[in-house]
Amino acid sequence: MPERLTEMLMDTWTPLIILWITLLPSIYMAPMNQSQILPSGSSTELKRLTEEQRVLNRSKRGWVWNQMFVLEEFSGPEPILVGRLHTDLDPGSSKIKYILSGDGAGTIFVINDKTGDIHAMKRLDREEKAEYTLTAQAVDRDTNKPLEPPSEFIIKVQDINDNAPEFVDGPYHATVPEMSVVGTFVTKVTATDADDPVYGNSAKLVYSILEGQPYFSIEPHTAIIKTALPNMDREAKEEYFVVIQAKDMGGHMGGLSGTTTVTITLTDVNDNPPKFAQSLYHFSVMEDVALGEPIGRVKANDLDIGENAKSSYDIIEGDGMDIFEITTDVQTQDGIIRVRKPLDFETKKSYTLKVEAANVHIDPRFISGGPFKDTATVKIVVEDADEPPVFSSPTYLLEVHENAAINSVIGQVTAHDPDVSSSPIRFSIDRHTDLERQFNINAEDGKITLATPLDRETNMWHNITIVATETRNHSQVSRVPVAIKVLDVNDNAPEFASEHEAFLCENGKPGQVIQIVSAIDKDDPKNGHYFLYSLLPEMVNNPNFTIKKNEDNTLSILAKHSGFSRQKQEVYLLPIIISDSGNPPMSSTSTLTIRVCGCSSDGIVQSCNAEAYVLPIGLSMGALIAILACIILLLVIVVLFVTLRRHKNEPLIIKDDEDVRENIIRYDDEGGGEEDTEAFDIATLQNPDGINGFLPRKDIKPDLQFMPRQGLAPVPNGVDVDEFINVRLHEADNDPTAPPYDSIQIYGYEGRGSVAGSLSSLESSASDSDQNFDYLSEWGPRFKRLGELYSVGESDKET
């Protein structure tokens, strides 16, 4: 305890001693022409020298202040004396007044205006403000006139060790690879101290490890953390918690300290090989498993993580290397065993494989530690499954002649049950592939028979599907395609390739080829077609024509003489027998039509009709017909044109000049309503002839002349409206002089029994002033109001 107290006292008073030593040169070694900070009064010699310099030299100010020092964090019962200001102009008569201004003047620092003593009134902190700049001036106390110019000086706050080191960026996290050598760099930490780094050792820091040894070390001055133990294994311990201390005063006793934590994580390296959890694996699989299906998984564990734990699997030995394959699951790092080829329990019941797992990424630094791979044995047992029947061939090709007899056997399919139980098989035809039911199959032995006749010329190929089903388990079904080819037999006679019609010129020469014909045969012999042509036996000595077989299997028709005439015989018929070379041979008779025609000197056919013989030379019948058609067309156009012009110039209805029904009469005066008949005289629109009901027409001439009808005058209480309309309609329908177009019929009669009479102003002959609207009051309130409005309107007009 006494040692600790002594150390604290030394830390406190050491700056004061240093301050006093610092002030001595400024107090006692200042130039003689300057004012000084004096602990007591000045000597006579100094005054004499000052007066001599005042006489010999130009006038200067009598005092200049140096910097002062004050200790931070000092607190006591009374303000601390910082220093004293004094000028040699002060005779001691208290006529000089000292004034202080600047940073903290009057608040932090206070000056005695008589003695010049400066006191610090508050506790100072160097970390908040390290120095203060102030200005001092001596003035006359009575007049406040400055005796000398103001002088500026600085008060510096002396530092003490009152701030502990701090790790601003802490706590820290760092990583280092596992298995690193001693001295491998991990990270660097940094602490800061708010004390003055220039004055004393208050900010001189030293670093050390409080926790984390012996795994890590730290450089005392650089704060670099390094590994201290070799071969630290992440798989044994992955994370370390290290406590770092920073201490000021160079690490000596009495210094302040701060701590931080560093979490150091070992990163993984590939220093561990994969290892199978077991050396032997057993799996079982059904023989009918689909190709590519997984049958089991194996796992090689790796203590490493990430990329260093990735492994690849392979089958390196075994009797099923071509039957099975193994792949890697990228998510779980498992080895998945799959089937590559079909399994057969009856052929092989078990397989033995040797599987290897190897690391994908190998670190060369640790390759000497041994192979980074492991092996395991896998035994696979194949279990029996109820398999569908198996055909003896994957496809069948059968041949049958098209003249094969019904129910004849055209082929056979066979199948068997591969299971040990060997169930019997039943065969059938998928009728979706034999819609016409042309074939049948024996359900027991699989023999295919013919159900309907075949025709190669209609369908040369038939593709059907045979179904084999186990009798014990109908769900076990197999299918096989069967292609049936229909073979050709000579059952079609040859015939002309097309309907030929030959043309013979009247001026033809003997031996001239009239026509070359060809034949076709629907059959398809192996050696190709060869046709024989001949005339009917009774036509062998035909006096007009003969035939000649060509090398290209065609036939030429030749004329025996010249001088054929259309007037004598226009058409000749020549029957020709065509035979093939099949077995048995087939033949048919086709007739060739030969027409006699008129030809030009070059042999070009011009006309083959007998009546065309009398036409003038050089002008054919077609040309005459074309000319006649043009003439008729022109005549029709002229007649239509004249008719249209006549109808356009002459009106259909004869009317007088006074008929203004077609005229347009314009007026701009608006009428007063339905009863306003004075605004416009409608009588000008009436046709005088129309009043009598007769309008003579000029476009037709009636067979019977009717007398003009007397128009019915619009009598308000004459006949019924329905009867009136029917009469007019009957007259219009039976009048041949009535206009065929729509016309306006004016009916001024409103019907029998109407109290109001006609509501139209077109036939009204009375003026508005003659009308009485009193009868409207009998129709109801609304019509009564309407009558009053019209009555008021009439009264206003009279007024």
TrEMBL record:
CDD domains with a match to the protein in the record: Cadherin_repeat
Topology in the lipid bilayer: Single-pass type I membrane protein
Domain Cadherin: 87-167, 168-276, 277-391, 392-496, 496-613
Record-linked Pfam families: CADH_Y-type_LIR, Cadherin
Localisation: Cell membrane
Principal subcellular localization: membrane
Matching Gene3D superfamilies: Cadherins, TCF3-CBD (Catenin binding domain)
SMART domains in UniProt: CA (SM00112)
Transmembrane residue ranges: 613-642
Protein name: Cadherin-8 isoform X1
Species per Swiss-Prot/TrEMBL record: Apteryx mantelli
Name of the gene: CDH8
